[in-house]
Amino acid sequence: MRPPVPVPTLSRRAKLVLGAIGVLLVLFTAIGTLTNVYVDYLWFDETDYTKVFWTELQTRALLFAVAGVATGGLVALAIYLAYRFRPTFRPMSLEQQNLERYRQSLEPRRGLVLTAVAVVLGLFAGFTAQGSWQTWLGFRNSTPFGRTDPEFGVDVSFFVFDYPFYRLALGFGFAIVLLALIGSVLTHYVFGGLRLQTPGQKLTAAARVQLSVLLGLFVALKAVAYWLDRYGLVYSDRGEVFTGASYTDVNALLVPKTILVFVAAVCALAFFANIFVRNFLLPAAALVLLLISSLVIGVAYPAIVQQFVVKPSANEKEAPYIDRAIAATRDAYNLADIEYVDYAQEATGEEVDTSAALAELRNDTQTIPNARLLDPNVLADTFTARQQIRNVYGFPEKLDIDRYTVNGEVRDYVVAVRELNSAGLSENQSTWINRHTVYTHGNGFVAAPANEVVAGTEGGEPNFTTRDLPVRGDIEVEEPRIYYGELMRDYSVVGAPEGARPQEFDQPEGGSDDEGQINNTYNGEGGVSVGSFFRQLTFAIYYRERNFLLSNAVNEESKVLYVRDPRERVEKAAPFLEVDGDPYPAVIDGRIVWMLDGYTTSDSYPYAEQMELGEAASDALTGTGTTALPNETFNYIRNSVKATVDAHDGTVTLYEWDTEDPVLQTYMKAFPGVVQPKSAISDELNSHVRYPEDLFKVQREILTRYHVDDPVDFYNANDRWQIPDDPTRNTEEDQPPYYILAQRPNDDEASFQLTSALNAFQRDNLSAFISASSAPETYGEIQVLRLPGNTPFRGPGQVQNSFESNNQVRPDLTLFNSENSDPVFGNLLTLPIGDAGLLYVEPLYVRGTGEGGFPLLQKVLVNFGDRIGYADTLEEALDQVFGAGAGESATDENAATDDPTDPAEPTTPTTPTTPPADGGTPAAPGLDEAVSDINAALEELAAAQRAGDFSAQGQALENLGTAVEAYQAAQGAAGATPGG
User: In this model, does residue 245 exceed pLDDT 50?
Assistant: First the structure.
């Protein structure tokens, strides 16, 4: 027998060094963790959401402790028992001699090793379990849905709240037993209770008893798993085209799963009986029976039924189960009550009856006058060029649409707030003092009617009816300062002792970009006080910034503003919600507030189709001004909460919106008092509520398939729709939905609504038009206009192609696409015109390519049937499509204004029209000269934009207008006429 190999030992100095390093690592980790938790707590305390903080923390701690103690403790107990009942004498064999060195190494350290195993496993299990805190809260506070599952006869809440928790607990049960089994086997093997290579008895009595109990527990848990698998059939994807229990699942798998429950239970009893029988043949035979049963009746039999019974006539066999899936999916995505309207059914030929449409057009006083010419997805640079005022301000990449009642008339506006833009600070403005204590906030609200542009010397730009600093215009703003916004990623230190000199830059003196400025000291309720040394030290550690301790700008009255993005604030205050990716500002009682939509979701609704949230809610604009939702699996969604964030003091308010949502009611039990009742929503706030975009995108994706009632048609994919690609961006991403103010068929007046066109599946023809109302009286009502199968109405892609290939449009695109400018197509809107059909309206902008260039509206394109209008104004474009006078009667409320300071005086914008398409000799003298003047004026405009010289830009635009007039006069002399 070879002598044992001595275990190397460390010197005293090495032990001290390693110990010191370990202590420091633990200390730094603890300080960092505690600092993060404390700063989080201060934020929740400032926003009055400490209930959320403590509930989440306590729930996480509870799950961590239970899972950690259960896993680490039980596994350690199993290992200890295996060691405790090790054999006193071991037979002498080569196997045991080889193991002796390990036993001698472990013996002196067995307590340390056992503790280490328990701690490591406990920590791992605890960290895993605490992430499921919402699953526990859902189980603990479960609210009935009031709807019964058609297969098992239990309330849907069992699947949404209870089933996920049972699966979670079962998973931990399997993990504990398996780890205990592995630990016990290894311990018995090392200490002689299990002898694989030694002649004679392989197991001691203690090892046999312990392993039999653990294997019995494992198989017993398998019996429970088979029982839960029965309920899991409601999530089956065996049906391929639908989700939920299929014919095979119900008729060939449900009963076998029940049989396997009893087989597994018998197998578990056989293992427990081995404690007394002392023969592994019986449990081994039971285990073989379980394996064979699971393969034959759990796998082979259902596969045979699926292949030879279901597939030959799947559309008939699966019909009842498809019915279930259709009903459940509609319910899960809140699409059970859709108004379907058979629309324009008489338009079945190759051409559309424009005479009937003209009659509808002349009677329309709601839709066409409100046709939106300003695209909020294009005009951010225009807002910046005209309303930025200082480089420290900025606007989001995507602006927003909202509606306001001004002078008794409801109009939709393109709106934005003038935020602090840290990315726009110059080099000398980027010191810590400037970035965090001087430039702390934005200022002002900007709005322009969506159906107006300014004409004359400024040509085609938004008519800012609310603008400038101090804010003035038709929307009254009492508190214009923006301390919380979408562009604000840095923290700010605000506040100063009474009588101290204000340090925060507020606005330029006189409201213009001159040398002087007005400073301000924050007086709002927001922010966390850092007046004490302890708080200053805390934030110095948190932000790794010594100026919290050294700078005079941090004093006894100072506050730190952080987590300033409205979406992040709502997500933090309500971690049980998914928040829509597009917050929008609104003026409520004179204060600017951010409005947001919160969703409750679940991935456990029975029979409902599962989707990836981020993917389903994405379109061509996602990521460019809107935030992508997390790509999590879900199959239930409700817009259950409306939230607001005050732009000045950061106050987060959550309002219950869907009063019948069981998921929200469950979380309201878990977090009492966090969500305010729906009755707390004021009338003014209610008037600015919008139907949320991300929910709408999810619902329209579902409707492309689940608008079909007949299960056979559903299986065969008859009458399937699809979302068109965005034709204005030359991308294969979905066309975004658009907010419009329009009159829906069967309605008496216009309403603010979110809309989308839908094509036939794998075709470019238009098949349907979906709209969701945002009006307070009809909020959430979804209407689908179903067009005839042989519809002559083109889809968005076809319309865009016809625009770009039109012989009047194409030359202008060549003219605009020059060294100094680019054409930019705006949103392609689809507007219902009475019962006659759908009208497409699209603005065309020209953007200067130089630094500081911004888009200006130049043309308006219109399509109805096979007719195209292309003109300077919507009125003229409608005349080209429907005949002279059509535009005037339809757009008598749609005006452009000469002077942005006087929005009352209507006029007509003028822009260049078309030069000869073939580039040949002009038809009249002066045409070449006029074209040269147009190009020269465009070059002057680009140079002025690059220089930021507004005066020069105005002169260039005036020269451009003169050149255009000369060109039009020359073209008129040649007998040129507008075409469609």
Answer: yes
